[in-house]
Amino acid sequence: MQFKHKPVMLKECIDGLNIKPDGIYVDGTLGGAGHSKEILKRLSEKGLLIGIDRDEEALQAAKENLKEFQNVKFVKNNHDNIKQILEDIGIEKVDGILLDLGVSSYQLDERNRGFSYLGENELDMRMDKTQELTAKEVINTYTEEQLSNIIYEYGEERFSRQIARNICEYRRNQEIKTTKQLVEIIEKSIPKSKQNDGHPAKRTFQAIRIEVNDEIKPLYKTVKDCIDSLETQGRLCIITFHSLEDRAVKNAMLDAKGKCTCPGDLPYCVCGAKTLGNIINKKPIVAQKEEQEENSRSKSAKLRIFEKI
């Protein structure tokens, strides 16, 4: 299957990175390389793009899409390890980093990956197929309380307790192996009258995917590590797709910006507040109406930009 992934807010990201032709840039979520291709078009032969992805299929597709460019380095890894990745390459600081978080269109469309609640496929949901933890293991081995907490916290699903309870009742008789089995359990757990906000399994599948791929817990630290890895005037652009991601990114950027907590009547700062840079956009940038109509994935997207000082 061809790796198709329409880059979200492409112009806004490129503008936000404020690209220097001879600079070094990182696409920490390479995917189909839609964003990366536009970055590379703006780099000179002295410039360099480092493309990171933990999905081997994404990396292979990106290599094909970027085969015309020589100044690109591909790395199979997780963007959470940004500092170690750069150290291994021998690079101390970079001029810009882009993170487009969440699952790609390709991963959703490639049904045998188990990300989609449509059809009947094995419960997998791994972005990195070499890791051990799968959605099937989460669904069949986590306790009812663990499942309920994950579905509520990561999926913001108000019927999380009923869903977790019914999952545990079902698996007492047989293992839950497929996406179809899980969808049927979820649909029976949510009253029909409340199934009017998209597909009833959407939030639970999001929650399980986040748990399998550990998408939220390291995010705050990842943002701080990315900022630490920037040159002066370097930019960090991050696209999020749900409130948990956006909250972690926002809090990390606010903390990196720093805030004096001294009383207003003091003549100078004594709290020792330090700032690493500035938040470029006070409110997150959202996709233009035309893009939202053309690409449904962009409807929930938020872009935040930070500049190192």
Structural write-up:
Helix 3 links the parallel strand 2 (48-53) and strand 3. The longest helix has 15 residues, at 243-257. The chain has 309 residues and is an alpha/beta fold. A seven-stranded mixed sheet has the order 3-2-1-4-5-7-6, with helices on both faces. Helix 11 (219-228) runs parallel beside helix 12 (243-257). The chain has helices spanning 10-17, 34-41, 56-65, 82-89, 105-109, 135-141, 144-155, 160-171, 179-189, 202-213, 219-228, 243-257, 289-294, and strands at residues 24-27, 48-53, 72-76, 94-100, 230-240, 277-279, 302-308.
Brief write-up:
This protein is of the alpha/beta class. It has 13 helices and seven strands.
List the helices and strands and how they pair.
Elements: H1 10-17, E1 24-27, H2 34-41, E2 48-53, H3 56-65, E3 72-76, H4 82-89, E4 94-100, H5 105-109, H6 135-141, H7 144-155, H8 160-171, H9 179-189, H10 202-213, H11 219-228, E5 230-240, H12 243-257, E6 277-279, H13 289-294, E7 302-308
Parallel strand pairs: 1-2, 1-4, 2-3, 4-5
Antiparallel strand pairs: 5-7, 6-7
Keywords:
seven-stranded mixed sheet; alpha/beta; 309 residues; 40% helix; 13 helices; globular
**Radius of gyration over alpha carbons?**
21 Å
- Spatial strand sequence of the major β-sheet: 3-2-1-4-5-7-6
Helix content: 40-55%
Oligomeric category = single chain
Average pLDDT rating: 93
Q: Count up the helices.
A: 13
**SSE sequence, one letter per element:** HEHEHEHEHHHHHHHEHEHE
**First and last CA, distance:** 43 Å
Please mark out the parts with pLDDT under 50 across 5 or more consecutive residues, or reply none.
none
Question: What sort of overall outline do the alpha carbons produce when their principal axes are compared?
Answer: globular
The helix/strand class is alpha/beta
Number-wise, the strands total 7
Main sheet specs: 7 strands, mixed
Strand content: 5-15%
